């Protein structure tokens, strides 16, 4: 299946390094990030899992739960976690799904529906499309989709930046410009008329073009 921003993230049950989860119930009222890996014991993914573990406080501060996924039996995760800790200084401190039957990878459109067999007989290259990041909101809708090649490590600072924008724009009728970071000016959403904008922003706004209305970022939730 092909997933798009705004689609409901498919629900599933799976075994993880921290026990079984039912995905939607696990998310609860939080935001969530699921990031996937083609196999255990792969070099780029090893650095990514350790980096994400080191950034866990930043995700927690934003009310975001993190879950990894690898096309490997969950029994292989503890040994990989040891390697991740040795290489990066951080062992995974979030659940990692063991997707040995390819169920979640296929459900999320990362592998073809006809993939089957022994996952340990497949190479990382066989699963190279299992390199996605999904940001999912409390409404269980997909808010962000990113896909990375195997040779390029993911930028989790960018994932945090997008989450900051998503959480701000979910609560305020604004959009964020290119390279925006938390605390910087924002753009009044096009759905807000000038009359409405004057009520919300009585001090006015910058208007380099009639369709670009720039204001300070709203404070609070």
Put simply, the count of helices is 7
From the spread of the alpha carbons, the general shape counts as elongated
- Main beta sheet strand tally, sense and closure: 5 strands, mixed
Strand content: 15-25%
Written account of the structure:
The protein has 221 residues and is of the alpha+beta class. The chain has two domains: 13-152, Glutaredoxin (3-Layer(aba) Sandwich), CATH 3.40.30.10; 172-215, Antioxidant, Horf6, Chain A, domain 2 (2-Layer Sandwich). Helix content is 29%, strand content 22%. The strands form three sheets. Strands 5-4-3-6-7 form a five-stranded mixed β-sheet. Strands 8-9-11-10 form a four-stranded antiparallel β-sheet, covered by helices on one side. The chain has a two-stranded antiparallel ribbon with strand order 1-2. Helix 2 (43-54) crosses helix 4. It is elongated.
């Amino acid at each position: 299946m092909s997933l798009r921003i705004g689609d409901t993230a498919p629900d599933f049950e799976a075994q993880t390094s921290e026990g079984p989860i039912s995905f939607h119930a696990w998310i609860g009222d939080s935001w969530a990030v699921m990031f996937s890996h083609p196999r255990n014991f792969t070099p780029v993914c090893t650095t990514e899992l350790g980096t994400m573990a080191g950034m866990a406080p930043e995700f927690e501060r934003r009310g975001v739960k993190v879950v990894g996924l690898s096309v490997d039996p969950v029994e292989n995760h503890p040994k990989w976690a040891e390697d991740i800790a040795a290489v990066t200084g951080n062992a995974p401190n979030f659940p990692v799904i063991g997707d040995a039957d390819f169920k979640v990878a296929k459900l999320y459109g990362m592998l073809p529906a006809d993939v089957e067999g022994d996952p340990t007989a497949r190479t990382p290259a066989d699963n190279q499309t299992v390199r996605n990041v999904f940001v999912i909101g409390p409404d269980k809708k997909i808010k962000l989709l990113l896909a990375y090649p195997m040779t390029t490590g993911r930028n989790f600072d960018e994932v945090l930046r997008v989450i900051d924008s998503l959480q701000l724009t979910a609560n305020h009728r604004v959009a964020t410009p290119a390279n925006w970071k938390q605390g910087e000016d924002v753009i009044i959403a096009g759905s807000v008329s000038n009359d409405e904008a004057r009520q919300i922003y009585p001090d006015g706004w910058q208007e380099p073009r009639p369709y670009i209305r720039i204001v300070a970022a709203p404070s609070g939730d």
